[in-house]
Structures are given as structure tokens and as C-alpha cells.
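Hey,

Quick one before I head out. I ran the complex with zinc ion overnight. Inputs first:
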Amino acid sequence: MREQLLIAGKEIKPGTHEIIDFPLPPLSTHSDLHMPIHVIRGKHSGPCLLVCAALHGDEINGIEIIRRLVGLKTIAQLRGTLIAIPIVNVYGFIHMSRYLPDRRDLNRSFPGSEKGSLAARLANLFMQEIVSKATHGIDLHTAAVHRDNFPQIRGNLDRGVTLKLAEAFRAPLIIDAPLRPGTVREAAVELGIPWLVYEAGEALRFDEVSIRGGVRGIVNVMREIGMLNKLKSKATFSPRIVKSNFWIRAPQSGILRLTVKLGACVNKDDTLGYVADPYGGNQTRISAPNTGIIIGRTNLPLVHEGDALVHLARFQNTGFASEAVDMFQSELDPAEMESISGSTPIT
Ligand SMILES: [Zn+2]
């Protein structure tokens, strides 16, 4: 007899795909609000994978990743359960904002509490009703507004099982990220649930390579944990682990011109860009303090002294990492593929 699965008081039976409208506190206008949740239960038992997106309401790549994921033919054959939530922070999403109406960051409010702020209550509800039912989790993010991330997996690699999942995902770079207080990742890891964060692209934008990489990565993890059959084909590259990463900040306020792309390989002292005043004077060159790969950058040319400009993953030798980055890009870039159909299954 398989265990009963109840979400928001509704039972999801094996062999069914349900969309549950999970009720949330209404808007101040008294309009009802729901968090839509896909629950896909296979006929046979197996792990329960939670995939969630838009915990930050303006980080929308993950919404498209989940739309494509749940539509894949192979998903109908899964063992176990896939819980996929395209928009966790519905309040932020309708305002195109990272935050909740109380200006709190939901992903700094975990594990939350029943009687706390709106953020704390939502976090608590999410933990009790969803996260606690999962055996594995993948949380989909992008960079903050006006910034862009090269697709990367973040996780606590001290736990061997998390490292295995991170490698299986096959983003080109894996960042060994310490747990940040208040995140759903920290709360899930405390419950013993292995948890990955996929960071890819920019807030309020769709990025095709990031989306394809996300769909493929989740399917790869499902193969790794036995929810889907493993493929026999050999991996074309090995993801590289980033042990040291940091932001290079604006030396002065002004107008920024970055001359490096995301995913670019740079050597120590290479030029990354320039900051000048709006009339072109007082120009300062920004150089790479170390050899590495550009894993994040701002897209906003208006900067103040101290603003984060370029996120560098430090490598002694960028050879293998740069190979992984290039291979990932060429495998998923629609310009380099025959088909650009958004619904093409990518496995
Ligand atoms: Zn985020």
C-alpha cells in the first residue's frame, strides 16, 4: 500500500496529474489568491522531487522551465512524485517584484512561523504543506533585477548526496555555497532533504539557454535518483566545482561599459570594462584581479561606487571549466541547433 499524499487537504492518487490551487491569504482588495501546484504521481513508488520557481517574484525563467518540464512525454512515465510549483511568491510576481507586499524577502524568512509576519506565515505554510513531503528539492532562481547569471548550480557540497545530484544536473559550473540563513535551502537541508539551487539568467527576462539547461538538468536529476530511466549515452563534459567566487565592484560612480560577456574566460589583469563620468571624462579601467570565468554581471550601465559589476569564479587554470562552459552553451544555444522549437524535449 503506498503512502497517502495530501496537499491542501486534497488527496493525489498514484497515476494522476493534478493541478492544485493552493489557497493563500487574499489581496487587500479581498481578491482570492492561489499558488498553482502541479502534482504528478507515477503509478509506481519512488522519490518525491519538489521543483519550485519564483520564490523571488521577478525571477521568471523557472516558470518557463516548469511549463516545459511538466509537458515532457517522459514525465508521464515517472516513478514516484514530481511536485512542480511555477510561482511560489505570487504576491511579488503580480507586481514584478522580488519581495512580498510587506517588503520582506520570502527566501530569507524560512522556516517561518504560524503567527509571524506574512513572509513568516507563507514560509511556514510552504514548509509544512510542501517541502516536508519532498525527498529532494530543486529551487529555480535568476540573478537579481538588472543582473545576469551564467547557468550554475549552488549547493552544500559537504553532503556527498548533494554533490552527486549537482553533478548529475550538468550545469557547467557548481558553486559550493554555504547555507544562507533564512533560505528555503537551509530549512530543507535541516530536514535532511538534499537541495539544489539553479541560478541562471536575469530577472524579468526569459533566457533560452538557461531555460533549456534547467529542463535538461531536472530531467538528469530525475534519472539519477531513479524517477526516470538512465540514459546510456556518455556525458560530453564534466561540471567543474567553483571553490572561490567574488564580485568585482565599481571603483567610482559613473557610466559603465563592460567589455566581457557572461561565461567568458579572463586572465589576471585583463580589461573587464570602464567606468567614466557621463561626459566621457575621468575614465577608470576595471581589470580582473584573478584568472577565472565570468559567472555574473550587471546589465545596468548606471553605477555607484561599490556596486557589484562582475561576478568572477576564480580558477588557477580555466581550461576544463571553460571547456564545460563552451560545451554547455553550444549544446543548448538555439542558434547552434537545428530546431528552435520551445517545446522540443531536451534530455
Ligand atoms: Zn532568487
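The longest strand covers residues 33-41.

Talk tomorrow,
K.
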